Amino acid sequence: MSILIDKNTRLIVQGITGRDGGFHTAKMKAYGTNIVGGTSPGKAGEMVEGIPVFNTVRDAVQETEANTSVIFVPAPFAKDAMMEAADAGVKLIICITEGVPTLDVVEAYRYIKLKGANLIGPNCPGLISPDKSSVGIMPTMIFKKGSTGVISRSGTLTYEVVYNLTSKGLGQSTAVGVGGDPIVGLYYQELLEMFQNDPETDSIALIGEIGGDAEERAAEYIRKHITKPVAAFIAGQQAPPGKQMGHAGAIISSGSGTAAEKIAAFEAVGVPVAKEPSQIPDLLKNRL
Amino acid sequence: MKIHEYQARELLASYGLPVDKAYICRNVEDAVRAYKELDAPLVVVKAQVHTGGRGKAGGVKLAKDEIELRQHVASILWMDIKGFIVDRVLVGKAVNIASEYYVSYVIDRKSKSTILMLSREGGMDIEEVAHTTPEKIHKIVIDPLIGVPDYLAREAAFKLFDDIKLVREAATIFQKLYKLFIDTDASLAEINPLVLTEEGEIKAIDAKMTFDDNALFRHPKISSLNEPTEEEKKELNAKSKGFSYVHLGGEIGCMVNGAGLAMATMDMIKLYGGEPANFLDIGGSSNPTKVIEAMKLLLSDKNVKVVLINIFGGITRCDDVARGLLEAFHQIQTDIPIVIRLTGTNEKEGRELLKGSKFHLAETMGEAGKKAVELAR
Q1: At what angle do helices A75-87 and A102-114 cross, to 10 degrees?
Q2: Where are the domains of chain A?
Q3: Are the C-beta atoms of B104 and B126 separated by less than 8 Å?
Q4: Which residues of chain A lie closer than 8 angstroms to B261, CB-CB?
Q5: Which residues of chain A neighbour B263 with C-beta distances below 8 Å?
Q6: Per CATH, is A139-285 categorized as 3.40.50.261?
């Protein structure tokens, strides 16, 4: 098994005719992801990479029985795209788009929950279950099938950690980039629970960063509910307060959200925190 | 994006919230004219700067006559409050305060929604209240699909007031403030304090608003209020080129692809005993033009003694990145040592291409950090 996506994933790409949508559609398809359709209003009947394009998500779902959607539309249209997918019955919605207004995400998230679906992102690299399915923009060649679950707020830092895991023989069950915005969909707690319940996952790498208190809440959740080994890395110890560090959500506000608080929270519940990303594989191996 | 108190007050007033007329003044003569216009026994002079703690810094003062007013305005104008120079003061009528309250709408990460925050401990630093007496703060999660209906606004108002007339008045204020928050894509709309005057009126005495940078594209009027500091101008300029840049002040300049990795690189430098000069995320790809622009930005910081380039080659493979770097550095003339750490897809091919160049090459982040720190000494 793995979590969220596998061979049964039937994916549609919203914004398939755009530059990014088209480029990553080809990459995902080459990896073996089952892409059943794409949408672009007014372009029904066209084909992209041999994949049929539909005018609406509802048409795409009706024709293809898609259960997952990945969104590559520009930020001003992302809210509409997320809600369209939820309304059409898609149960897992992954929004890659960066720069979506926060209140748009708040509204779309609420609607998606109302429809009983899950959201990943926005401003995220997507997720991958190696050798089964890749949804998003992750560089698939660094991943290897295995038993470590990866949860991260970042993109390239995730790749850095995964690269270290793979080169030290720890493959991945599923790796999820949850996104770098203040408000995003699935987060540590939900994903920790999924990995805990996934028989193919035996350990979890958690990559956090400054801003908010999600890591502190994750630490508390791990203490109560997670029996599998977890190792963490927190980026941003040198970040000055009040400055956004690239990601909209990576900001220390009014003295809270610091790396030091997060590291202390993990250490207090027995989760080892790597000083540099390359230490993660050993921290996990020591506890397996 | 931040705006000044007087600008926030104008926004509040335009949404029908109870804000007294006040005047923005850039010199003593302006202030004297405002004073005469106000015709009040007591006026307040407030520094307008993009930072909190104005009161403690001496940036807010009461004046009971024209002589005091002149003194206060002269002393507050051109004051330095936490690095911000005061070039405007707000002059308004002082009110007789019976009690003070705190009201704000803010984005809450935990509930993934907007929350209405209320407290009877108004006029104080709310973070202090949250820290010492969290039970005195009420948080109401707003469902974005229904907003703030009458019943919810009343329920909230009962947390601050007992008198039904005041409850109704406050409830309307909460609804109007929510509309303003949503209409302008704010990330904070705060009234602190909201006061009950001795005359029995509810008034907003101070207002603070910040806005979601990601939504400014649809709010040209709000955007036009932006007054970036010199440092923020540099950051905005970097942003227009597709970078995220934050100045930190150390000696080792960093150029990294991806925000998380860029933060981890800064931390690494510190771990090995150095001081990072900046945070710089050059984004996903690393084409030569971007690298050249990024180097210009780094070298404009005269403290930079070493540059550390940390690139993870994902979809853009390391050999392509290496070619890009060689091409970029063919055009950049600098004596500053450059440490390059290239990893990811096709890393061997990438490193092979860089061999024999003037760069200091490293394989791991740790090695790169160590090298950069040594070279900076």
Answers
A1: 0
A2: 11-120, 139-285
A3: yes
A4: 154-157, 160, 235
A5: 157, 209-210, 235-236, 238-239, 245-246, 250
A6: yes
Question: Touching check for B310 and chain A: CB below 8 Å?
Answer: no
Q: Each residue's pLDDT tens digit in chain A (288 positions)?
A: 799 999 999 999 999 999 889 999 999 999 999 999 999 999 999 999 999 999 999 999 999 999 999 999 999 999 999 999 999 999 999 999 999 999 999 999 999 999 999 999 999 999 999 999 999 999 999 999 999 999 999 988 999 999 999 999 999 999 999 999 999 999 999 999 999 999 999 999 999 999 999 999 999 999 999 999 999 999 999 998 888 888 878 888 776 889 999 999 999 999 999 999 999 999 999 988
Shortest distance, CA A63 to any CA of chain B (angstroms): 30
B141 touches chain A (CB under 8 A): no
First to last CA, chain A: 19
Identify residue B300 by its one-letter amino acid code.
S
**A11-120 and A139-285 share one fold:** yes
Give B63's strand partners: B43
SS3 of A119-155: the string is EECCCCCEEEECCCEEEECCCHHHCCEEEEEEEECCC
Q: Report the alpha-carbon distance of residue A267 to residue A284 in Å, rounded.
A: 14
**Under CATH, which architecture does the A11-120 domain have?**
3-Layer(aba) Sandwich (3.40)
A252 min Cα distance to partner chain B (Å): 13
Contact across the interface for A156 and B244, Cβ inside 8 Å: no
Contact assignment for A156 to B260 by CB distance below 8 Å: yes
Distinct helix (H) and strand (E) counts, chain A: 9, 13
The rounded distance, in Å, linking the Cα atoms of B187 and B217 is 15
Cα(B243)–Cα(B219) distance, rounded to whole angstroms? Answer: 23
Among the partner residues A110, A153, A210, nearest to B144 by beta-carbon distance = A110
